[in-house]
Amino acid sequence: MKDLYPSRKGDTPKILERKDPVIHTERSKDDQAPISKEQLDFYEKNGFLQIENFFPEEEVADLQKAIFELQDANKDVNSDKVIREPESEDIRSIFHVHKDDNYFKDVANDQRILDIVNHLLGSDVYIHQSRINYKPGFKGKEFDWHSDFETWHVEDGMPRMRAVSLSIALSDNYTYNGPLMLIPGSQNYYISCIGETPDDNYKKSLQKQKLGVPDNDSLRWLAEQAGGISVPTGKAGSITLFESNTMHGSTSNMTPYPRNNLFMVYNSVENQLVEPFSGGKPRPEYIAVREGTPSYSGAK
Predict the structure, then answer these.
(1) CA 262/CA 271 separation, integer angstroms
(2) CA distance 249 to 167
(3) Residues near 154 by Cβ (< 8 Å), separated by ≥ 6?
(4) Is residue 246 part of a domain?
(5) Are 252 and 141 in contact (CB under 8 A)?
(6) In this structure, is residue 276 part of a structural domain?
(7) In Å, what is the CA distance from 71 to each residue of 82, 131, 260?
(8) Backbone torsions φ then ψ of 98, nearest 5 degrees
(9) Does residue 68 lie within any of the structural domains?
């Protein structure tokens, strides 16, 4: 398959234009969408959309209880699916929760979510990746600037930009507790990064990403095109949808207030993974589901 989005193949970074639509359902069908035309316009222009109070308080309480029960259950577990901070044994992320836990399987298949992502991607979808991210007060570490698609393309073999990430806020997001930061409009440009990808790069990158991180000049250019950086804030229960190529990151959390979220990636069933474009071996299934069948509504 032709590599439409080459990256990590040279010693000079490049900025390439996007070759795929941002919304894959024809805009003439906006009246059939589960969200408003204004929300679709915002997503198409900026590459992300926040919907506040998506989950009611009682569901938020259940979600919060579930992520901490899972954290406690994995406290002393030695598993590749449990990612710990590079300088401590604190849990940073737990992967593959949509397969390993029935409760989170139901959340991943919530019809309210599926209706939105099916429309954005113009097809049935499946879960490419799921994880819980924990960013406790005082010691939660940063996530470097990156495009998810760049990693999924190079290391997993995702051919096209036809996936959407969903972050469910499970603690209140402020501008100061290490929130998600996004560069509006960055979904329209692909940063071809430098460096070669070694085998098993994920073992280090999931703790701290070094490859697939854009150079400073490219990031500065993206931010200048956008006129700045957006920081969605809001109460627990809000969701943020962001396009697979939207540039994003987050700072460390130096405050007393935690910032936890459930993160799920929905990929079009028409965008199944091929061999990684790095030429290396695929990442494990718990990081990148290689053969996805359509997601359908669960118990919720």
Answers:
(1) 23
(2) 13
(3) 7, 8, 197, 212, 276, 277, 278
(4) yes
(5) yes
(6) no
(7) 9, 12, 11
(8) -75, -15
(9) yes
Encoded tokens for 189: 């440009």
How far apart CA 150 and CA 144 sit, in angstroms, is 13
Return d(Cα 99, Cα 164) in angstroms, integer. 19
What span, in angstroms and rounded, lies between the C-alpha atoms of 191 and 146?
9
First to last CA, the chain: 39
What whole-number distance in Å separates Cα of residue 276 and Cα of residue 77? Answer: 30
- Across the range 39-50, mean pLDDT stands at 98
Total residues found in the chain within this entry: 300
Distance between CA 124 and CA 269 in Å, rounded?
6
User: In this predicted model, what pLDDT tens digit does every residue of 266-294 receive, in sequence order?
Assistant: 999 999 999 999 888 899 999 999 988 88
Give yes or no for residue 190 having a pLDDT over 60.
yes
What's the token pair of residue 18? 């996007």
- In DSSP terms, 278 is beta-bridged to none
Structurally, the chain folds into a number of domains equal to 1
Contact 176, 223 (CB under 8 A): no
Neighbours of 167 (CB within 10 A): 21
Pairing, β 91-95 against β 125-133: antiparallel
Structural tokens at position 238: 């809000």
Output the six-digit token pair for 171.
């603690």
The C-alpha atoms of residue 229 and residue 216 are separated, in whole angstroms, by 15
Q: Which CATH number characterizes residue 90's domain?
A: 2.60.120.620
- Is 121's pLDDT higher than 90? yes
Helix and strand counts by DSSP (H, E) for the chain:
8, 12
Domain that holds residue 171: 54-268
pLDDT in tens, 242-261: 999 999 998 888 899 988 99
Query: Which of 133, 234, 220 has the alpha carbon at shortest distance from 183?
Result: 220
